[in-house]
Fold:
Amino acid sequence: MRSACLVLFAVGISSLFAACGDSELTCDEGEVAEDGACVPSSGVTTSTGSGAGAGSGSGANGAGGSGADGAGGAGGVIDPGYPPFPEVIGTLSIAILTGSGTNDGTDANALSVCLSETDCFPLNVLDVDDFRVGEFDVYHFEDIGLPRANVDRVEIRSVNGTDAWRPACIEIRMDGEPVHCEDQLDALLGNGNATGEAPTWTDPSGLHESCVTCYPTTVTHGPVVGATDDSSARVAFRTDATRKVAVRLAPTGASDAPIVAYSYPLPTDDFMGEVALSGLDPATSYEVSFEVEGELSPKKATFTTASPAGSAAPLRLAFGSCARVFDQPIFDEILAFEPDAFLFVGDNHYANSADRDSLRWYYRRSAEVPERAALLASTPSLAIWDDHDFVGNNTIGSSPGKEVALRAFGEYWANPSLGTPSTPGVFFTHKIGDVELFMTDGRYYRSAESNSNGSILGAEQTEWLKTALTASTATFKVIASGSMWSFTGDETWEDFPAARAEVFDFIRDESITGVVLLAGDVHRSLIRKIDRTAAGAYDLPEIVSSPLANTNSTCAASPPAGVTEIGCFDDDDFFATLDFDTAAADPTLTAKIIDATGATRATLVVSRSELE
Structure:
């Protein structure tokens, strides 16, 4: 039972005023107060934020940008309210939609948005061909220190270039607050001589809103179902601005979906929000919906929680890597196989950039692929990176910009965590039923390939992996890496023999049972067993799935020494499935390489007794 609180907002560019009365709304047992009325309690607890580990950190380590803890349950759900919108702008966000006409885009002009005669902001996503026909571009300018009182216009300037550009819509947010939206622009910007072309366009109405958003809906991207186990799930989504998002949750088919969390996505997270739901029932299907400032969004997420932790039950995982082109029909095939979770094991986009807005552009564009979006909204997905979605081809731990890449990664993936508090990265563990995943980061601490005594994981992450493997009680332990384990000369574990031996020997010496290796990267798919002949060792299965949407590289004529190859395929896009049956007297893993048509190319069946 809590005092009701009335929240008031001034119209326009406003300050926040909150007044809490003395009166209390008393509800019956099993009910909570919501919007001035008593409604059934969901029994679900939540926290909100952006990025893995949301609500418990900042920036890439779990930005709590969507508000304070939204802990609910029997006591109700706390609405933290809008963040303050200060009079001196910290972060300015501009989104622009280019027209859909054949010649509306440009790849040559230098353009800026000016909010005063001298306060101008260049529109340039550094490593992206922006201003494409019918596409959005988003620009965030942080720490600008511009007083709102100094804003006296909304002007677009063509600084130079004669390739005329036609914008269809522009929206502006000041520290997340929507302050401008215009979708009836009559402008053709450029410095050439085309009919109607002009070097500037100024909104005659100044700072105003004639539309809510340039996007079709205020939930612009997602939802993305992330880490899900028997009692919890993470769900991420993106909005067009800092808006009040009431997250509703109910078992699939239920007539009522109570609010279980509030989120206020921030511009410093590219308006990505995330909710962590706990207190869920095992093996239960749920639906998540989003009410944005009182209006129910058409975007929904669905997921099914896992069987009770440690229980013997069938489990199907799927995984893949290397999604370069944005035509990705293979995700329809993946969805048809109904995996309990999908693992992205690197090169999940190809930004090849250390620029923040460029990385975010690729995350948004990838989320717009229809087949991929359908999978992400209905299947728990977990991710690690490789070089192309880190900061560039063959980049390593000393490469500039890795902190920026980690920040963007954390915004868009709903992983259970990002490294550890003392060791940042994209690595984590996650248990589903009686299978535990050890998702590693092969880039943030990677040594130069010329250093054969170097490391892929770095010393701290290696110790983390050892500790986690030792503590695991799972029947099967799946270690995923962006880089292959059994191939020499192409950025693989074999190029770091001491590091690979340290992991493999630890598995042997500490009697770590049930280990299976996953990898991607190489633009071909294969199944191998890495021969381990030393006393106490067992052969390690390696399943490699690549690409999801890219060109192929050729399979070797024969596998390297010390490897037994079941099959290698280099003529299509691929994914892999991993079917675990831990209820069998001798539990089994059935691994399959599957092509873009849904055809099985290779199968490996491994009994748990072979992995000890």
User: Anything to note?
Assistant: The two ends are 55 Å apart (CA to CA). The first helix runs from residue 330 to 336. DSSP finds six helices and 35 strands in the chain. The mean pLDDT is 89.
